[in-house]
TrEMBL record:
<feature type="region of interest" description="Disordered">
    <location>
        <begin position="217"/>
        <end position="243"/>
    </location>
</feature>
<protein>
    <recommendedName>
        <fullName>DUF4191 domain-containing protein</fullName>
    </recommendedName>
</protein>
<keyword id="KW-1133">Transmembrane helix</keyword>
<feature type="compositionally biased region" description="Basic residues">
    <location>
        <begin position="234"/>
        <end position="243"/>
    </location>
</feature>
<keyword id="KW-0812">Transmembrane</keyword>
<dbReference type="InterPro" id="IPR025445">
    <property type="entry name" value="DUF4191"/>
</dbReference>
<feature type="transmembrane region" description="Helical">
    <location>
        <begin position="70"/>
        <end position="89"/>
    </location>
</feature>
<feature type="region of interest" description="Disordered">
    <location>
        <begin position="1"/>
        <end position="23"/>
    </location>
</feature>
<dbReference type="Pfam" id="PF13829">
    <property type="entry name" value="DUF4191"/>
</dbReference>
<feature type="transmembrane region" description="Helical">
    <location>
        <begin position="43"/>
        <end position="64"/>
    </location>
</feature>
<keyword id="KW-0472">Membrane</keyword>
Length: 243
């Protein structure tokens, strides 16, 4: 009497659509994005790795220990290539988001080091659709506008006065995001925010956040464009809020 084979014993488990891609899958996405925007990406990465490896070999031939220095040079080249890939992907991501409503808010959201950002605009002009985004951190409150320089300046000034009235002893920093003279471009937003001097401790930051909850928002809230987060394009970067 023969037994029927068990069906589905070695059947693969269905893939979870909500499961995040692994590190290799993420790196593949980053590379594809970079190569699509910059055709020279593979050649530049290869030059970085090969150049460092050859330098390591040359150092070994001159001073001894060629095997060790060659491996060391390769590892240095690999790290350099990873750093370059992250920068290329960041540039590509900014170019991909450029011109979309809420793009500067998405960029401001990458300033994770000690900052907590409201995930949607705190103010919007119903006519012009100019936006103002807010992030809170150790430097105080950061307000970033998105829109033409002359027009968005009025909305930004209004929000600054409103915040200073509610938080009289907390620094309120304002920036304009855009491509006009005097505005911050996408790649300049995060460095400008992270250069601000720290004035608050973690307890004070939390108190400010609770106080800001009473401000509410002005107008409707358009969504921030989704896409590859430039912050994730950098290898070995722990994107943890509030740190």
């Amino acid at each position: 009497m023969s037994e029927e084979p068990r069906k589905g014993l070695f059947r693969r488990k269905p893939k979870d659509p909500n499961k995040k891609p692994g590190r290799l899958a993420q790196m593949k996405q980053v590379y594809e994005l970079s190569a699509k925007h910059n055709k020279a990406t593979p050649w530049l990465l290869a030059a970085a790795i090969l150049g460092c490896t050859l330098l390591g070999l040359l150092a070994g031939l001159l001073f001894g220990g060629a095997v060790f220095t060659t491996i060391l040079g390769f590892m240095v080249g690999l790290l350099l290539g990873m750093f370059m890939l992250g920068r290329f992907a960041e540039t590509a991501a900014f170019a991909q988001m450029d011109g979309q409503p809420g793009a500067f808010g998405a960029v401001l959201n990458t300033a994770r080091r000690g900052y907590l950002m409201d995930d949607k605009p705190i103010a919007i002009d119903p006519k012009s659709r100019d936006l103002v985004f807010r992030s809170t951190g150790r430097a105080g409150v950061v307000l970033l506008s998105e829109g033409p320089k002359g027009r968005s300046a009025k909305l930004l000034a209004k929000e600054r006065k409103r915040h200073e009235r509610i938080l009289p002893n907390v620094p309120v920093h304002t920036f304009q995001g855009g491509n006009e003279e005097g505005q911050l471009k996408m790649k300049q937003v995060v460095p400008a925010v992270q250069k601000l001097p720290r004035k608050l401790n973690k307890t004070e930051v939390l108190a400010v956040r609770n106080r800001l909850a009473a401000l509410g928002t002005q107008g409707t809230r358009p969504p921030i464009p989704k896409g590859i987060d430039p912050n994730k394009a950098r290898p070995n970067h722990k994107a943890m809020r509030g740190r």
